[in-house]
Write a structure and sequence with these properties.
The protein is 22% helix and 29% strand. The chain is α+β, with helices and mostly antiparallel strands and 384 residues long. The protein has two domains: 236 residues, Rossmann fold, CATH 3.40.50.300; 125 residues, Beta Barrel (OB fold (Dihydrolipoamide Acetyltransferase, E2P)), CATH 2.40.50. The longest helix has 18 residues. The structure holds adenosine-5'-triphosphate (ATP). The site of adenosine-5'-triphosphate has 13 residues, from helix 1.
């Protein structure tokens, strides 16, 4: 492997575009994508189906060629470097194990992709397989046929196989996509723990935001072949960049803002106080601004608690309360999601503790907590 250029990110995509040969002339799977992954980072690309996530991994692996831009590994342009010399591992969506081989045989196949002088002898090989099985929580499974394993166990074998050649970059395509929710939630934590322990550099793609947020140091949100936001899970969660990202993360309370004055946004629900009116973002701004109110920021009180009046503990000019009807409850484990039909504006989603949730059919008054609001900028390709 050529020496690493100092300080270069392990992976860098510079203005990468990709178009499949049989696609329409202006139909790009990726458009002008910039992306960096530093050694030891776990970065997940998140986006809806068809957004270009798998194409991005295939480009880095050398299975596709960019139509513009460059893919660099350790600072070196990979244009003429074939897949097997890039030192990257790719675990596919369907984990593609060999059904006729046992667990050890599948993992040893990963070892076989090491360069010739670097291949272990059979005893060494078995020791490496056992160590990898131990790492992925399958100690003692070496001789089992893969066909007799559960989906989650097969996923771990696929991971061990991808880790076997010691890739400098491990790429995962929907790593937990086929598993049921409970198993996914458990495995995602195990994966995170394993990557931190091994110091593995990972580029994963998924359409599942929970998976991306639980596993990653950084999340890159893509839509229609473009990167629309990049940041730590906390940054993206707290400040979605646009109505598209907010909705993709599962937030439904997103409305256009007519104008913002003295820290209050004019919305279809009426006036809503917004966070930090000193924030330049909150100044009266151009149209195309949207407001997100998180469910936790939709505060409910019985309808007789002063509908249409400023709230008792708020300032004298606080926005008046909005009346709404409770349409449905969704049980979410530790809280209840509440769907409301307000007297004006689109439906609202609120959250309440189990014992505080007003019953279906009840009329409530709604106030908004400014700390749970986020002003969003609509981008040109961002149809809400
Ligand atoms: N082999 C191909 N030939 C032509 N077009 C393709 C090919 N593979 C993908 N595409 C197109 O490229 C775009 C991006 O596809 P890609 O598979 O990268 O998206 P994705 O985000 O991984 O989607 P998914 O989550 O469904 O796997 C889509 O519009 C898709 O139809």
């Amino acid at each position: 492997m050529p020496p690493a250029a100092t300080d270069a990110p392990l992976l860098e995509l510079r203005h990468v575009s990709a178009r499949y040969p049989d696609a329409a002339p202006d139909s790009y799977a990726l458009r002008d994508v910039d992306l960096t992954v530093h050694a030891g980072e776990v970065v997940t690309v998140l986006g809806p189906s068809g957004g270009g996530k798998s194409t991005l991994l295939r480009l880095v692996a050398g299975l596709e060629t960019p139509s513009a831009g460059a893919v660099l590994l350790d600072g070196l342009d990979q244009r003429d470097i074939p897949t097997h010399r890039r030192g990257v591992g790719l675990m596919f969506q369907d984990h593609a194990l060999f059904p006729q081989r046992d667990v050890a045989g599948n993992i040893a196949f990963g070892l076989g992709t090491r360069r010739r002088g670097d291949r272990p002898d059979p005893t060494e090989r078995r020791a490496v397989v056992d160590r990898l099985l131990d790492l992925v929580g399958l100690a003692g499974y070496a001789d089992r046929p893969v066909a007799a394993l559960s989906g989650g166990e097969q996923q771990r074998v696929a991971l061990a196989r991808a880790l076997a050649p010691g890739p400098r970059l491990l790429m995962l395509d929907e790593p937990l996509g086929q598993l049921d929710r409970a198993l996914r939630e458990r495995l995602v934590l195990e994966l995170r723990e394993l990557f931190v322990k091994l110091g593995t550099t990972v580029l994963a793609v998924t359409h599942d935001q929970g998976e991306a947020f639980a596993m990653s140091d950084r999340v890159v949100v893509m839509r229609a072949g473009r990167v629309v936001q990049s940041g730590t899970p906390q940054e993206v969660w707290l400040r979605p960049a646009s109505p598209f990202v907010a909705r993709f993360l599962g937030f439904d309370n997103v409305v256009p803002v007519r104008r913002i004055q003295r820290g209050v946004a004019e919305t279809p629900w009426g006036p809503v106080p917004v966070a930090d009116p000193q924030d330049p973002d909150a100044a009266p701004g151009p149209s195309g601004r949207h407001l997100l109110v998180r469910p936790d920021g939709v505060l409910l009180a019985p309808a007789d608690a002063g509908a249409g009046q400023p709230h008792a503990d708020g300032p004298a000019d606080a926005p008046s309360a909005l009346r709404a009807t409770v349409v449905a409850h969704t049980f979410r484990g530790d809280h209840v999601g509440i769907v409301l039909r307000p007297e004006r504006g689109p439906r609202l989603e609120a959250a309440a503790r189990l014992r505080d949730a007003p019953p279906e059919g009840a009329t409530v008054t709604v106030r908004f907590d400014p700390a749970e609001t986020v002003l969003l900028h609509a981008s040109p390709e961002d149809s809400p």
